[in-house]
TrEMBL record:
GO biological process entries: protein-DNA covalent cross-linking repair; proteolysis
EC number: 3.4.-.-
Organism classification: Bacteria, Pseudomonadati, Campylobacterota, Epsilonproteobacteria, Campylobacterales
Enzyme superclass (EC): hydrolase
Protein name: Abasic site processing protein
UniProtKB keywords: Covalent protein-DNA linkage, DNA damage, DNA-binding, Hydrolase, Lyase, Protease
Organism: Halarcobacter mediterraneus
Coiled coil ranges: none
Domain of life: Bacteria
GO molecular function annotations of the record: lyase activity; peptidase activity; single-stranded DNA binding
Entry's transmembrane regions: none
PANTHER family cross-referenced by the UniProt entry: ABASIC SITE PROCESSING PROTEIN HMCES, DC12-RELATED
Similarity comment: family membership: Belongs to the SOS response-associated peptidase family.
Amino acid sequence: MKIKSWSNYLPGRLAIFDDKSFKNDVKELISNDMIRIINKKYNIPPTLPIPTLLNNGNYLYAHFGYLPSWAKDKKSMNINARSESIFEKVTFRESYKYRRCIIPINGFFEWEIEDKEKTPYFVKDKEQDYLAIAGIWDEYFDNELNMNIVTVALITCDANEKLGKIHHRMPIVLEKKDFKIWLYSESLKETNSLFKVYPSEKLELYKVTQDVNKVLFDEKSCIERVEKIKKGQQTLF
């Protein structure tokens, strides 16, 4: 499948290498842990599996890239949905009503573009080791695999002041006290109220290696801080 440059989206790369704290915080919400021991991933691009807690109690690996059940092919895949219009779009509306999920990540990557050069940053929570991202899901029949797969999209909003310096959008981050509301509430007014911009003071972002640009590069060094980026370093985008 030919896809656009994922650098145009946010977040287009994720990291999830430790879900212990998240699983402890949602243990009463998980009825079927299909992941058990997480597969550490430091640079997840769209189409790869990401851990997801569905509102039916299943904690499983889902396809990073949302496809509604009625999609004819994967060309209509979306990796995120805008919070401002999710309840209006035909593609997302039903899933927003009935199939919401939480996607735990340890952080995500975004790129600062200056003078045609792209500098990657890692974005994480300052106070805890994961971000609980609001998402939607659906089941899609994958002809290549000859089976149904769970597909997910992250929900985004306007970026906070800190992240807004490098990108205008950011994911919706849920507070622990709102997990049950997001997963189970039948009131769209109540779930809409969770579409808040995560405060700048709760986020940390720092420069990381240009190796993040390589889709197949998946090492711990992806999330390690670097002080300087060499000018003229090539990226894949």
